[in-house]
Amino acid sequence: MTDRIADLDTLDAKPRRRPRRNADQNRAAILKAATAEFATHGYAGARITRIVTKAGSNPRMIYELFGSKSELYVATLESALGALRTEELTLDLMHLDPLDGLLKLLDFMSGHFERNSHLVSLLRSENMMKARHMKKSARIQQMSSPVLGMTTRLLARGVAEGRLASDIDPLRLYVMIAALSQFHCANVHTLSSMFETDLSKSEWRAQRRDDARKMLAAYLTRGRDEVGKS
Hints:
The chain is mainly alpha-helical.
């Protein structure tokens, strides 16, 4: 009898209403869901219906806050890259020895890409579309300038102190650091299958990171007499 009364009470109980969210909370929930959707399915395969379901929102809210699927995708790219740039700029590198500072930048980027596989997926997808959406974002272009400036200043100080090779281009160096940080992440499944080794294991990645540090240090500190040799 008690159980039956409990069942009746349950039937009579009103469903809980979802707490009302403000625009910032709705935007954050939609961006989180969109990041997972675009990272998993790419731009073409992503579906607004799945995004609103995961976000607990509705299509009207997406178009009200972002304007279109394309603009939501750009906002997702900005959010993912913005997180990387924000963390990069919190790195206290300028007081370090130039070589140590650049190696610390490599350590940070390696860890960030390994922790944020969605960013690797988003960048891979956007590259396949020749950065069509990224080109629409002035914000993404502005994000890169401070980091490149930091790299330039570390290099310049290292050259002035006679500690680093003098022919290193800051942009090419940053691209090299990015490549050393994410190639294994972007290709983890294919490489793991081809060589029957799990490249996602922490032990393998720690060894790879150590190899990358040695390679970068050797490149940055090579003798002046070796500059220009193949």
